[in-house]
Each structure stands twice: as structure tokens, then as C-alpha cells.
């Protein structure tokens, strides 16, 4: 089961995040928490090949709802952050970790 991406919502409601923005946020998680992609995959119970597909810029694989939910539970982020970049409900310590990594990547 796939989840609707923000890219698919672009014609609606003025959403401006692109698939690349979503992928950038997903890619930031392991580094922000000081873990490898393999460790992230172990924690959220997903194969590393599947994760690689979810964070590939080719757009072929969408992040399934159960995987997104496990990311939220494991890393204390929200679906609103993953898909829209909204940070209102993320704790300041988690947000600071992510922001530090996002600045390094930019």
C-alpha cells in the first residue's frame, strides 16, 4: 500500500515540497541520529534495498504508510515533517539534531 506523496498533491492546496525535499528529509535521519542506513533499517524493520529505493531520486518507489509510521515512532518525527517539512510537533532536541545535519548537507 502506497502513500500519497506531496508531489501528487502539488496541483491541490498550494503544497510546495517536492519529492526531492521529502527524500532529503528521509536521508537526513540516519546521520542526524548518528546511525548507519543499515541500523535505521534494522530499527524500522525494513530491508536495506527497500530503504535505498525509498530514498532514490528516481521516483519509482513511494514510502509505504507502515514504514513512515515506524520512522515517526522510532525517531520522534511526524508525517507532517516527512511529507511537508512542518516542524511544529517535533521536540526541540530532535529538531536540533535534524537541523544540524540538514545544514551540513546543504
Biggest sheet overview: none
CATH fold type = 434 Repressor (Amino-terminal Domain)
* Strand/helix succession: HHHHHHH
Oligomer: single chain
CATH class, please? Mainly Alpha
Estimated structural class: mainly alpha
How far is it from the N-terminal to the C-terminal residue, by CA? Answer: 32 Å
CATH architecture annotation: Orthogonal Bundle
Please tally the β strands and state the result. Answer: 0
Helix tally equals 7
Q: What does this 3D model show about the protein?
A:
The protein is an all-alpha fold and 106 residues long. It has a single domain (6-105), classed as 434 Repressor (Amino-terminal Domain). Helices cover 60% and strands 0% of the residues. The protein has seven helices and no strands. The longest helix has 14 residues, at 19-32. The radius of gyration is 13 Å and the shape is globular.
Task: Please provide a brief summary of the model.
The protein is mainly α.
Amino acid at each position: 500500500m502506497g502513500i500519497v506523496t506531496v508531489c501528487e498533491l502539488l496541483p491541490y492546496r498550494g503544497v510546495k515540497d517536492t519529492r526531492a525535499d521529502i527524500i532529503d528529509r528521509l536521508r537526513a535521519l540516519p546521520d542526524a541520529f548518528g546511525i548507519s542506513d543499515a541500523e535505521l533499517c534494522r530499527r524500522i524493520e525494513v530491508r536495506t534495498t527497500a530503504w535505498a529505493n525509498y530514498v532514490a531520486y528516481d521516483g519509482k518507489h513511494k514510502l509505504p504508510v507502515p514504514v513512515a509510521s515506524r520512522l515517526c515512532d522510532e525517531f520522534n518525527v511526524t508525517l507532517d515533517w516527512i511529507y511537508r517539512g512542518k516542524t511544529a510537533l517535533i521536540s526541540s532536541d530532535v529538531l536540533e539534531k535534524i537541523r544540524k545535519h540538514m545544514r551540513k548537507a546543504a
